């Protein structure tokens, strides 16, 4: 019976992963001008590393052939790229030469990533709706 809902479970994990990805993109865009953080220096762009969801120990006990099903957020990483130096001697965080270390965030690339995450989210919603429709048709056949 679990296999009937497997496609919905897989899509649900993908929805959660894409939501995390979209939240990080929004955070990057919101902090694109932050030059001072508690850890020192400008804000560092964050990204998400996604991977295949491994079956739990319980799933493996129930089914020795349990294959990965779904998506997991493996980790959130900060960019190690050097900050962009912008000449602005009047900025409070300018160095002695008048340069300010700005976050290495390209708003255009962030928007492209946001559109990609949004499309993936929509695709998984469609997959869930199709699975629900197939289940409904299966129940109708049984009447």
What does this structure look like?
The chain has one domain. It is built from three helices and four strands. Helices cover 49% and strands 16% of the residues. With 143 residues, it is an alpha+beta fold. It has helices spanning 2-30, 57-62, 107-141, and strands at 46-52, 71-78, 84-87, 99-102. A two-stranded antiparallel sheet has the order 1-2. The chain has a two-stranded antiparallel sheet with strand order 3-4. Helix 1 (2-30) runs antiparallel to helix 3.
Order of helices and strands: HEHEEEH
Strand order of the largest sheet: 1-2
Number of strands: 4
Per the principal axes of the C-alpha atoms, what is the gross shape? elongated
Measure the end-to-end span. 19 Å
Total domain count: 1
Number of helices: 3
What amount of the residues lies in strands?
15-25%
Instruction: List the uncertain runs.
Output: none
Mean pLDDT rating: 89
What would you report as the Rg, rounded to the nearest angstrom? Answer: 22 Å
Largest sheet: 2 strands, antiparallel
Q: Which percent range fits the helix content?
A: 40-55%
Structural class: alpha+beta
SSE map:
Blueprint: H1 2-30, E1 46-52, H2 57-62, E2 71-78, E3 84-87, E4 99-102, H3 107-141
Antiparallel strand pairs: 1-2, 3-4
Task: Briefly characterize the structure.
49% of the residues lie in helices and 16% in strands. The protein is built from 3 helices and 4 strands. The strands form 2 sheets. A two-stranded antiparallel sheet has the order 1-2.
